[in-house]
Structures are given as structure tokens and as C-alpha cells.
Please model this.
Amino acid sequence: MRTAEIRQIAEMTAEKVVEKIADESIELLTAAEVSAKTGIAERTLHNNRYLGVGIPFVKHGKMVRYRKADVAKYIREHTVKPCRDR
Model:
């Protein structure tokens, strides 16, 4: 592959990454919305933020929001699949 071709592929990939990040950053949820979707109490979400654990969040001043993609990732990572190999 030529250097120009590699550079073009890299630029195309970078553009797609930026577009994906921009799309995800628009989809913000409130703590109440996250609580309704996950069943995690709003107080637990607050405590988790204080402790630095749980779902990543965005904070601007006093406003706290959760990216929809982070909530989905958290659910995926905490899904337990039953195992009956015995």
C-alpha cells in the first residue's frame, strides 16, 4: 500500500470516530431516566458518583447526565449469563 492510500484510510477512519463520538454525546439521559431504564435507584446512582464507581457520567455545573452508550455498556458488562455445565 502506498503512503497516500494509508493516509486516506486513516483520515476516513478518524472522521468516522469523530462522527460516532458526536452522535453518542448528543444522547444524554438524566438520573431519573437511567433509574427507570436500569432499576437502579437515583440515590444509588448519586452514591456511586460520589464513590467514583458505577456508570460513567457527564457533569456540567450541577447538571449530571449519563451518555446512553455508557448506560448500554454498563448493562452489557453486568449481564450474567447462566451456566449449567455440571
Observations:
- The two ends are 51 Å apart (CA to CA).
- The mean pLDDT is 85.
- The first helix runs from residue 3 to 26.
